[in-house]
Design a protein that fits this description.
The chain is mainly β. It has two helices and 14 strands.
């Protein structure tokens, strides 16, 4: 029997912006979302994400658009490596330089083999993508202080440059998960299904009244 789609909305706390996603998590995850932000320059980011019943990523498509430019990237795992396909129109680097920021470089990656250890994808500025390791590793039900180190394909926004990254997720007991990457750490509040309610320094979920 088909499940009813769900919807979540977060407001950004690090900058002016928001994220809205419509999804079905009856058998893994099928999601379509939009991220809006004004920094480093105003952009609209649209994504489509699918994960299997084991919550491992099977496909991610991202499109980012701003004034006079757009970029896209598609990531698909298979055969022990990630297939990365990109597209670009206009000149994001020129828009960044005009706003006083350094250029971003080309979207995607010049060496997909660097992503070989990644199971999950993390999209910069998106709160939804934290659900992938949380559910895949069962952290919403794990004993406190259960830490898991993972490799991810990290998609930077708005550049859509894809880089390998190491992250650590630690269960802090019911409703709390610690996220760490490099020197950054945040204790996430999550609901019983593992979706983020509050991500300090990034976003807070807004539920309908």
């Amino acid at each position: 029997m088909p499940t009813k789609p769900k919807s979540l909305f977060w407001t950004r706390t690090d900058t002016a912006g928001a994220e809205h996603v419509v999804f079905d998590d009856g058998q893994g995850l099928v999601a379509r979302g939009v991220v809006l932000a004004v920094d480093p320059i105003p952009y609209t980011c649209r994504y489509q994400l699918t994960a299997g019943p084991d919550w491992a990523t099977t496909r991610v498509e991202v499109e980012v658009e701003g004034a006079g430019w757009s970029r896209s990237v598609r990531l698909e795992p298979g055969g022990g490596r990630w297939r990365v396909t990109t597209g670009e129109q206009g000149d994001l680097d020129a828009a960044l330089r005009a706003a006083g920021h350094p250029p971003a470089g080309l979207p995607g990656t010049d060496d997909p083999d660097r992503l070989a250890d990644a199971v999950d994808v993390d999209l910069g500025g998106s709160t939804l993508f934290n659900i992938l390791p949380i559910r895949r590793l069962g952290l919403q039900r794990a004993p406190a202080e259960s830490a898991r180190r993972i490799a991810v394909a990290w998609v930077l926004v708005p550049s859509l440059v894809v880089v390998p990254a190491e992250q650590v997720y630690t269960s802090l007991g019911p409703g709390r998960v610690r996220f760490a990457s490099g020197t950054f750490t945040a204790d996430l509040d999550v609901d019983p299904d593992g979706y983020v309610v509050r991500y300090p320094g990034l976003a807070e979920r807004i539920d309908p009244r």
